[in-house]
User: What shape does this take?
Amino acid sequence: MAELPAEVAYLDNAASTPLCQQAAEAMAPLQRDLYANPTGSHRMARDSRRRIDDARDVMAEVLGCEPGEIIFTAGGTESDNLAIFGRCWHMADLRGAQGVVSEQASVPVCSAIEHHAVLEPVERLGGIMVGVDASGTINLDALASELSANTAIVSVMLANNETGMVQPLAQVAEVVRSAAPNAVLHSDAVQAMAWLDVAAQAGDADLVSVSAHKFGGPKGTGALMVRNSLELSPLLLGGGQERGLRSGTHNVAGIVGMAAAAEVVLQSRAQQVERVSILRDRLVDGLLAKVPHTVETGDRSRKVAGSAHLCFEGVESEALLFLIEDVGVYASAASSCSSGAQDPSHVLAAMGYSRELAGGSLRLSLGYETTQADVDLALSVIPDAVARLRDHASDALAM
Ligand code: PLP
Assistant: This one.
């Protein structure tokens, strides 16, 4: 195995966060001792069920809804798919049942900067994508012009996973209410949970997606908040768990771990936002000062606290990530799912960035465990790495 660097700065928390101690402690005994299926009738099954009910109460508190409005899923991707397909299929079924073709809304609409877990279902259903401005904020006039009585669902994320930009959800809700009378509002709050009061900021949404591993919980667990009055078609059919919306045996330890992490978020978010945004500002200001021809994307005053996102002119992200990894800085270029496949970022393209500049993007995402030492390490290695790559590129041109 390759030798590991002496120090490591993990600056990829938007891809996944470390499991917090409270979640790990809550999960360990469950995995070992409480293995009964929570749908059963014996004592151990009832005990499992109780743990899920307690977790549901916590998730309801953090998302600002009734416990019965929480649907446990296997993560953000499933929650997003359930919201979009579930709503559109339900409307299409209604249309079939009532024999009405044109008057039932079944068209999904989303912003052009959504995660692929929203974009692809919307594309698959022949939906509409709405543009953003240069800061990466949804264009509300463009949104209004795309909405009609045929719109079934509008999906606008609370915080973007590449730039960290927070979207004006209350204003989006107003536009939806006035221009799309049959639509419901979905918000992907996967990147917002650690930093924003989702209950307040997504309070106007009918559907909200979250994913545990983005806020200190385990991977493979998430939730979709579904307002009680709202009907969806399920993606998975079977035992009828979760109000029939998500069949399949519950991941009890995962659900309990997610709730434990959510409790930590409720208790510590305000202090963490203050602490981490100072570190983030130091990191971004330091890089802007040390590395010429660098562009910070978006508008920092409207980003979540952990998000730093920059584009370095004349550099390829892939090469930069490789160099900085070697000296202990772990980061990513675009979203976690698309790095590896070096497609240009659809988010930066929607913001009007050229392919060349977008090709030099770097996402440094801080989290609850990020320290001053992590920032110092990043500040000491990234400027050199960028300079080396630029020198290399100009040598190659001169040859
Ligand atoms: N939505 C957003 C905004 C994300 O950033 C991600 C993951 O990066 C997802 C959805 C998918 O979540 P999960 O990894 O839990 O499937």
User: Anything to note?
Assistant: The domain at 21-264 is CATH 3.40.640.10 (Aspartate Aminotransferase; domain 2). Residues 75-77, 80, 115, 117, 157, 161, 188, 190-191, 211, 222, 335-336 surround pyridoxal-5'-phosphate (CB under 6 Å). The longest helix spans residues 252-290.
